[in-house]
Amino acid sequence: MTFDPAIITAHLPALGMALLTTVWLWLVGLVASVILGLAIAVARLYGGLTISLTLGSFVQMIRGTPYLIQLFLLYFGGPAIGLTLEPFTAGILSLSVFGGCYMSEVFRTGLRAVPQGHIEAAECVGLTRLQTLRRIILPEMLVLVLPPATNIAVGLIKETAVLSIISVPELTAVVNEIGSETYAFVETLTALSLCYWGLVELCSRAGQAAERRLATFRFAA
Amino acid sequence: MTTPPAIRIEGLVKRFGAVTVLDGIDLAVPTGEVTCLIGPSGSGKSTLLRCAALLEVPSEGSITIGDRRLDFRTESGRPAKLRHADIRAARSSIGMVFQQFNLWPHMTALGNVAEALRTVRRLPRQEADARAAAQLERVGLAARAGHYPAQLSGGQQQRVAIARALALEPKLMLFDEPTSSLDPELTGEVLNVMRALAADGMSMMVVSHEIGFVASVASKVVFLDHGRVVVSGTPREVFARPRHPRVTQFLETHVDHAASLLIG
Questions:
Q1: Is the CA virtual torsion B93, B94, B95, B100 positive or negative?
Q2: Residue A185 lies in a domain
């Protein structure tokens, strides 16, 4: 078996563009996941029984089915209900919902882990419920959930590869194309794996660095 | 004209399900005086203090804070539904200090004290910070203003918590076992701050196991057992012989023997 790195170097510009697309998909999906996750978690905890049960079932459904199927349902099934989406839009949307549901579970446990006493202290000095949520509960929760949230962010990087199936020109799609043109599957798939691994490493390192910086804000007592 | 008490508690009952934790408490904290609650674990003293702070809604009875009376007695026998706004209004003249300090870990000492001044009182940042700094000065922690709770000792954290409660200029301070999670060396600095507050004429209601502190600072001691007031009076009346047998038993079993010798 031969291994010819020249195949990779010859396609570097295309690879670079594809990598940028993947990073962009991931970042947009991640930000949307965090916002959606927060909204779901807060609504489930404080929104009353009906909202909590409805959102709870939705989260279970998303967590209980493969992301690939969800993407297919949205992209191929969407037009049946008048929802015709561009591959990019369908990708970002499904990625955000998928990530958001996982994030919401992490945030929900984080919200419940904020000590009741910290909330009572806020009540006692007259903060309203909304002020308590915004000034005390959410910031404390975010410090607590940093490690599990980083985990989900890492998972999301790899889920972007699924978007290659609906022809979003991200890393996996582009590299596979080069592979089938040149028959250099080993070289291309190795390069592909290394790219994802590099991204994952960057993300976990960033998470760890943030954790170290936020260590000061953790509970003292 | 006599000043009305800082807080008056009448016929207070608190039930958790089938368990009656407070069984008809009558108590008033005169303005400018210190009332200490003592008693064995499970006697209901912390629950009483939490009711006074309206962190627990009593099942029956009434609490009058300043001129605002909250009634918990209902015709139907069900606990009264209190409006959140009424609770917040009644609480605005009360400062609460917890056993576990409960400082917000993501804010500096100054931030903890200034928070309510900014979000509740809506003071501009500079003024809120200046007032917060003055309160930290009062508890001897001006030099620690920029420290986060994780960077402070337990005693310092509790002093910050006292400054936080004082920042809104309450008329009554409630202390729920403020030194129980501190080791003996750190207990003193917190008790000294509380002594100074008492000397300044702050009305205080204190749950404490520090019998020495209680005996020297309280103008009234209330001994609770099984949710009832067993004895109340001046420290001399409660501690000096002849004393109520239940108090003697408490001092012998629950309090350090040296402390009970000291009280005589």
A1: negative
A2: yes
